[in-house]
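Hi R.,

As promised on Friday, here is the backbone we talked about, encoded as C-alpha cells. Could you run it through your design pipeline when you get a chance and send me back a sequence?
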C-alpha cells in the first residue's frame, strides 16, 4: 500500500480541478490527475508537482473508469480521497459564448441531446466513478468523497425571487441539482461507514467553463473542495457548502 494518502481528482488537467490537485499535492498527498486526454493529464501532473501522476479517466466511459480503478488498486493499493470535479456547461460547440450557453439551456428550447450529454458527465459520470472507487475508499484509512457542485443547483436559492443568480436552465443548473441529490443519497447510504460524502461550491470562478467570466480565481475556487478533501474522522457528511459556510439544498 502507498505510504501516503492518495487522492483522485477528476477533470484535473485544467481549471479548478488542476488547482485542487496542486493544493492536495502540497498537503503531501499522492495525487492522481484525472484527465480524459492522457497527454493533457501528463502535462498537468508536471505542473502539480509533488507526487502527482496522470491517469486517463473519461467519466462517461465505463472502460476508462474500470481501468483507472484497477490501476489505482494495483499501483497504489489505496484511495483515500475522491474529488468528483469534472463537468461541462455545454456539450457541443466550444466556441459558443457564455451568454449563448445559458440561452441554449433555457427549458423551453434546450435540445434534449444537449441535456442528456450534460447529465451524462455531471451526474451519471459522478455516480459511475463513485461506484467504481467505493471499494478502494472502503479499504483506505480515510474515505472522503467531495462532489464539486454549484449553488446554482440549490432549489432553495433558485426559488428565491431575491436571488440575482436565478437561471432558468434545464441542463447545467438542473444537473447540479441532481448532483446534490446524488450527494445526499451516497451520504445516507454510507453514513454507517467511515466514508464521508460532501458537496462544495467553488463560487463563480474564471475558467473555460464560463469563458472566464467568473470573478474568483482558481486558488479561491479550490479552497472549499480542498477543505472537504482534508477532513478528519470527526468531519461532517451529507453537507453542501462554500467557503463562507453551509448552503441551502
Ligand atoms: P473547466 O476549466 O472547464 O474544467 C472542467 C474539467 O472537466 C476539465 O478538465 C475537463 O476536461 C473535464 N471534463 C469534462 N468532461 C469530462 C469527462 N467526460 N471526463 C473527464 N473529464 C472531463 O471548468 P471548472 O470551472 O474548473 O469546473 C470544475 C468544477 O467546478 C465543475 O464541476 C463545475 O461545475 C464546478 N463549478 C465551477 C464554477 C465556475 O464558476 N467555474 C462554479 C461552480 C461550480 P477537458 O479539458 O478534456 O475538457
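Update: got your reply. Pasting your designed sequence below so it's all in one thread:
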Amino acid at each position: 500500500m502507498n505510504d501516503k494518502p492518495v487522492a483522485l481528482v477528476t477533470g484535473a488537467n485544467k481549471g479548478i480541478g488542476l488547482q485542487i490537485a496542486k493544493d492536495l499535492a502540497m498537503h503531501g498527498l499522492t495525487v492522481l490527475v484525472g484527465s480524459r486526454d492522457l497527454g493533457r493529464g501528463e502535462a498537468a501532473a508536471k505542473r502539480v508537482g509533488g507526487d502527482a501522476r496522470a491517469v486517463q479517466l473519461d467519466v462517461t466511459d465505463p472502460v476508462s473508469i474500470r481501468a483507472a480503478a484497477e490501476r489505482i488498486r494495483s499501483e497504489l493499493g489505496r484511495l483515500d480521497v475522491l474529488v468528483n470535479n469534472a463537468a461541462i456547461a455545454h456539450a457541443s460547440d466550444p466556441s459558443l459564448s457564455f451568454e449563448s450557453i445559458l440561452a441554449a439551456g433555457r427549458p423551453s428550447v434546450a435540445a434534449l441531446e444537449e441535456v442528456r450529454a450534460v447529465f451524462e458527465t455531471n451526474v451519471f459520470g459522478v455516480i459511475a466513478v463513485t461506484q467504481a472507487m467505493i471499494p478502494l475508499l472502503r479499504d483506505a484509512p480515510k474515505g472522503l468523497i467531495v462532489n464539486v457542485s454549484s449553488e446554482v443547483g440549490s432549489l432553495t436559492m433558485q426559488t428565491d425571487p431575491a436571488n440575482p443568480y436565478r437561471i432558468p436552465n434545464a441542463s447545467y443548473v438542473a444537473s447540479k441539482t441532481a448532483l446534490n441529490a446524488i450527494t445526499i443519497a451516497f451520504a445516507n447510504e454510507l453514513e454507517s461507514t467511515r466514508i464521508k460524502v460532501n458537496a462544495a461550491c467553488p463560487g463563480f470562478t474564471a475558467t473555460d467553463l464560463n469563458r472566464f467570466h467568473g470573478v474568483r480565481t482558481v486558488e479561491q475556487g479550490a479552497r472549499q473542495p480542498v477543505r472537504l478533501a482534508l477532513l478528519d474522522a470527526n468531519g461532517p457528511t451529507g453537507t453542501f457548502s462554500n467557503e463562507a459556510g453551509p448552503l441551502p439544498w
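One thing I noticed while checking it: DSSP finds eight helices and eight strands in the chain.

Thanks again,
M.
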